[in-house]
Amino acid sequence: MILKTENLSHRYGASWAIRDINIEIAEHGIIGLLGSNGAGKSTTMNIICGVLNQTEGKVSINGADIRKEPELAKQHIGFLPQTPPVYLDLTVDEYLTYTAELRLIPGNRIKEAVAEAKERTGIAHFSKRLIKNLSGGYRQRVGISQAIIHKPKLVVMDEPTNGLDPNQLIEARKLIREIAQDRTVLLSSHILSEIHLLCKEVIMIESGRIIFSDSMDAFNNYMQPQSVLVSFVNPPSVNELKQIDGVNQVEYITEKQARLFFDGAEDLTERIIAAGMQQNWRIREVGLEKGMLDDIFKQLSTQSNKNI
Ligand SMILES: Nc1ncnc2c1ncn2[C@@H]1O[C@H](COP(=O)(O)OP(=O)(O)OP(=O)(O)O)[C@@H](O)[C@H]1O
């Protein structure tokens, strides 16, 4: 087991930030921790990485208890906190050499470890550059370098793609996928599509509790389409649209585009198109809409409350 948390709970002052978080990760690949702002993602990650001491519960990394055997446990863990822990006045080489020392890499192997981490994250050409003169995307790569410099089995990344521009995002995702090829990456995000793109497993946390933990495929079952957007050249009336079998509600978003809500109706798209052809609505586009993250949260929260 690479990571195991047992009934992990933490409170700041009187209020609990997380309650009874149980996570078990045995395989390689990318696992997503999904939750809205304030759900408890950072608290969970900080405890897993030994940066914050939990109020209750236990964390084991590769079988070692992070509180009882911190040195042993931390050998197997790399951490990229929400703000990359870089020193702006050091060069990339100076900073990575320093982090290699912190990670207790033997002196005669530090140069090699620094070179390898830079190579993996594509920053070798910036070795002598001061970190303050790097762009946000490259600073973050330096942050990732320090997280993998000791070749840990588990890399924990707190919102690693937050605040990156579209190009940096694509590069960052590519890098994270590469890093996860031979280890486990646990990453957090409040953006569903981000977790969707990257992760094979998802742990969803809301108000400090896990409300879903399973494969991405299983998660997708909660995202059944419930509405369809249709654009017309000759828009019909709401009543005409309601006559289509399975449609139970209609709202026009613009003059020419309507949202049709339906209940588990099969072949609905085909029926809409057929009706459109018959009555000359001249349909330009039909697109299924997936449930919004808020709805999924609501759905899952109600279900988990029922199970308690
Ligand atoms: N140092 C602290 N002192 C008091 N309360 C805190 C502290 N850090 C976090 N909290 C509270 O604990 C809860 C969980 O916060 P946490 O930062 O873990 O959530 P998060 O899911 O990471 O959210 P975000 O994406 O906004 O960082 C929130 O209600 C937050 O206000």
CATH architecture of the largest domain: 3-Layer(aba) Sandwich
**How would you sum up the global shape?**
elongated
Largest sheet: 6 strands, mixed
What hetero molecules are bound to the protein chains?
adenosine-5'-triphosphate
Number of beta-strand segments: 14
Named CATH topology of the largest domain = Rossmann fold
Whole-number average pLDDT?
90
Please write the string of helix (H) and strand (E) elements: EEEHEEHEHHHEHEHEEHEHEEHEH
Number of domains: 2
User: Helical region count?
Assistant: 11
**CATH first level of the largest domain: which class?**
Alpha Beta
| Strand arrangement, major sheet | 6-7-8-3-9-10
Explain this structure.
This protein has two domains: 220 residues, P-loop containing nucleotide triphosphate hydrolases (Rossmann fold, 3-Layer(aba) Sandwich), CATH 3.40.50.300; 65 residues, Alpha-Beta Plaits (2-Layer Sandwich). It has 308 residues and is of the alpha/beta class. 35% of the residues lie in helices and 28% in strands. It starts with a strand and ends with a helix. The model has no long low-confidence stretch (mean pLDDT 90). The strands form three sheets. The chain has a six-stranded mixed sheet, sandwiched between helices. The site of adenosine-5'-triphosphate has 11 residues, from helix 1.
Gist of the model:
Pfam families: ABC_tran. The chain is of the alpha/beta class and 308 residues long. It folds into two domains: 3-222, Rossmann fold (3-Layer(aba) Sandwich), CATH 3.40.50; 225-289, 2-Layer Sandwich (Alpha-Beta Plaits).
